[in-house]
């Protein structure tokens, strides 16, 4: 009987530490150090580039930091369940130093690439998701090429 209880206890402990939601960031971003968030949307045809905003407004930067600091990693998305698109990204900077960059599936920040697969991400419910913050930002939208250099989108 003791052996069964011990096995059950170990199993429960493993489930508590290895199952369910986990924090996206073990080490939280310091909102006082982050002064810029660079959001690059997914690129379709490289000839037309990708939209990007360099967000430096202190309140907007704090909102992005809050979202990612309070995001939780949920289930791994099994192969075949995801719709894979070109990557969009959210990069956090302190001065010219990139602190961290998150790659998302297309423009969907609720599917984030971690190590070797896409995972579902949950953000605090009382705010926009990162794409919503990007959309409502007053920062100028610029067009960049595959290398992140500013370009002019050809007329269609």
Question: Could you explain how this protein is built, in words?
Answer:
The chain is an alpha+beta fold. It has helices at residues 2-18, 58-69, 130-136; strands spanning 22-23, 36-40, 50-55, 72-76, 87-94, 97-105, 108-114, 117-122, 141-144. Strands 1-4-8-7-6-5-2-3-9 form a nine-stranded antiparallel β-sheet. A hairpin with a 2-residue loop joins strand 5 and strand 6.
Question: Strands, helices and their partners?
Answer:
Elements: H1 2-18, E1 22-23, E2 36-40, E3 50-55, H2 58-69, E4 72-76, E5 87-94, E6 97-105, E7 108-114, E8 117-122, H3 130-136, E9 141-144
Antiparallel strand pairs: 1-4, 2-3, 2-5, 3-9, 4-8, 5-6, 6-7, 7-8
Give the tags.
about 35% strand; single chain; 3 helices; disordered N terminus; alpha+beta; about 160 residues
Number of strands: 9
Distance linking N and C termini? 74 Å
Helical amount: 10-25%
Largest sheet: 9 strands, antiparallel
What is the strand content?
Answer: 25-35%
Outline:
The protein is an alpha+beta fold. It is 23% helix and 33% strand.
